[in-house]
Design brief:
With 230 residues, the protein is an all-alpha fold. It has one domain. The chain has 11 helices and no strands. The longest helix is centred in the first third of the chain and has 24 residues. The chain is globular and about 60 Å long.
């Protein structure tokens, strides 16, 4: 019992240290030695519990996806059709990666690592079936899982590619939403309406609100001080 409790506490300290460093300085710059020193654990303890940084990334991804989508839904209009909610949520996620480089790293790695991508595919396919079933009668959750593999790849590559004066955020959102909704057989006229709706939103302001809520939730859940405004 004592050893079990000790492992639980060590796991929590590692999670707290990793998430704090990932948010403050980025996934790539965070070193194992920093984590071990902050969490006060040995290398063997860390490897037994998580193996590497990607083991921590799985826990973080799980929490972030649940938190950000819940926050996005709370900001979205309550009477929006599901396809509009999907567009707003994905647009916010993509915008978050433009507002904060450390979040960009976390998202890109989450969409790259085998374990975290499998979690994303399975979690998202359930939601996609609810959203797009009317456009795809007879499609199973497995069908949406297979489609999500493709659209998640587009999401990952678009988040990794920084916006510039030619490929603006608005252009990026328009391109992604057009391609993803086309995959899910949303009619052209409705795609145009949804995209126009998203582009009218002050997406940077909305995403910034989500980001601040997300940081506070991460600090509370993983037990570290948020410090100065991110």
């Amino acid at each position: 019992m004592g050893q079990h409790q000790s492992s639980i506490e060590a796991r929590q300290r590692i999670l707290s240290a990793c998430v704090k460093f990932f948010i403050r300085q980025g996934f790539y710059k965070t070193t194992i030695s920093e984590i071990l020193e902050e969490a006060k654990v040995s290398c063997s303890t860390f490897q037994n519990l998580f193996k590497n940084k990607y083991g921590v990334l799985f826990d973080l991804t799980e929490f972030m996806f649940d938190s950000q989508f819940a926050a996005a839904r709370s900001i979205s209009e309550k009477d929006l059709k599901p396809v509009y909610v999907y567009a707003v949520e994905t647009a916010i996620q993509m915008t978050l990666s433009e507002l904060n480089e450390n979040l960009r790293e976390i998202y890109v790695e989450a969409y790259s690592d085998n374990d975290t991508t499998e979690y994303i595919f399975r979690r998202t396919s359930v939601e996609l079936k609810k959203i797009f079933s009317d456009y795809n009668p007879g499609y199973s959750e497995g069908d949406f899982y297979e489609l999500e593999i493709g659209t998640a790849g587009i999401m990952r590559n678009y988040m990794a590619r920084k916006c510039d004066q030619y490929f603006t955020l608005e252009r990026k959102l328009e391109r992604f939403l057009e391609m993803s909704m086309k995959v899910y057989n949303v009619p052209k006229d409705e795609r145009e309406e949804v995209i126009a709706f998203v582009l009218k939103i002050d997406i940077r302001k909305t995403a910034n609100q989500i980001m601040q809520r997300l940081f506070k939730s991460l600090a509370m859940n993983f037990g570290f001080e948020l410090g100065e405004k991110m």
